[in-house]
Amino acid sequence: MDYEVVNIGGKTVEGIGIKTENKDGKAMRDIFPLWDDFFGSGKEEMIRGRVNTKYIGLYTDYEGDFTKPYSYLAGCETDGSGMPVFTVKKIRAGRYAKFVTKDPEKGLGEIWNAVWNMPLKRTYISDFEEYLPGKDGQPEEIHVYIGVEE
Predict the structure, then answer these.
(1) 115 three-class SS
(2) Do the Cβ atoms of 139 and 130 come closer than 8 Å?
(3) Where would I find the AraC effector-binding domain in this sequence (predicted)?
(4) Which domains does the chain have, with CATH numbers?
């Protein structure tokens, strides 16, 4: 699977989070309802200081590699101004392998399966998905950033 290595500046993300893991499909059972709650109860509209219209799924606080528990945050990038309403986490500045899909249904799973089977030298500090909304509000394109060693 194709990707490019890019340098990303640090980002601040505010949203709602959970602790999960990839074992036995637990992450899928946890993450989809988290997004449903985020949008279904209007939480995205409560976040102040948004810097763009994108949504971010942040993987952080890894307890090891991708087979161990980690934290996931569904949210938006903010400028850090104002009092946060929800959990705030940082995306570290650094090098990331960037993957892109225009097929939100299948593409995201294909990217993650490829990442798990690639010899990337991952940092396991922060990885994130950036959802670029289309005209109907649904993701038109998804960028997946995997933290890699310098």
Answers:
(1) helix
(2) no
(3) 1-149
(4) 4-148 (3.20.80.10)
User: Residue 30: what are its φ and ψ, rounded to 5°?
Assistant: -90, -40
CA distance 111 to 127: 13
108-139 pLDDT, tens digit per residue, is 999 999 999 999 999 999 999 999 987 776 77
Supply φ then ψ for residue 115, to 5 degrees. -60, -45
Instruction: Output the CA–CA distances (angstroms, integers) from residue 44 to 78, 102, 115, 127, in the order listed.
Output: 11, 23, 29, 21
Sign, CA dihedral 114-116-118-124, equals: positive
- Structural contact between residues 106 and 14, judged by C-beta atoms closer than 8 angstroms: no
Beta bridge partners, 141, equal: 132
Tokens of 53: 């219209």
pLDDT at 80: 85
Question: E strands, 9-121, where?
Answer: 11-20, 55-60, 70-78, 87-91, 94-101
Calpha distance 24→78 (Å, rounded): 33
